[in-house]
Amino acid sequence: MTSGCTGGGQSSPTLVTAQHPSTQEHPSVSSTPHAAPTRPAGRYGTRGPLRRRARLVVSVVLGLALAAWAVWAGLGDASSHVQASEQSYRVVDDSSTIVVFSVSKPADEAVVCRVQALSSTAAVVGLQEVPVGPQDGAASVHTVTVKTQQRAVTGVVDDCVPA
């Protein structure tokens, strides 16, 4: 009894390697850089120097706006160490109001305070600028008579700024 295995006429089995389907459909990936795909000019138009110039102009304008804001914020800080508040007011008549206010500032600095008289509709009916100099010291109290165009209902210190 032979099993059919004779050494003479039998061929050896062939080894077949299966390839993954994705390698058959697509070429191998290369590490060589490829140029960016071009956009069809008929569909998207062409990018010209105008677009680059517009981008440059917008960048410059934004940069200038940022610089202007930084300067403005820095100057705003310079007067933030000056504080003023009204202590009292008295409406004398239709043409004048007396305002008493205090100022706190660096002793060696001169400021100008704007004192306003306001109507019942909050309109400014009188304005007086009051200089407060270094001789007044760091804290001082001032009394000013504000001439008005019509009867006021209140008197306030609007602002004090470096002179």
UniProtKB/TrEMBL annotation:
> InterPro entries given for it?
DUF4307
Question: What does the UniProt keyword field contain?
Answer: Membrane, Transmembrane, Transmembrane helix
Chain positions covered by the region annotation Disordered: 1-47
Q: Where is the composition biased (Polar residues)?
A: 11-33
The residue ranges crossing the membrane are 56-75
- Keyword check for Transmembrane helix: yes
Protein origin, superkingdom: Bacteria
Tell me any Pfam family this protein matches.
Answer: DUF4307
Q: Where is the composition biased (Gly residues)?
A: 1-10
Q: What is this protein called?
A: DUF4307 domain-containing protein
Taxonomic source organism:
Quadrisphaera setariae
For this protein's source organism, the top of the classification is: Bacteria, Bacillati, Actinomycetota, Actinomycetes, Kineosporiales
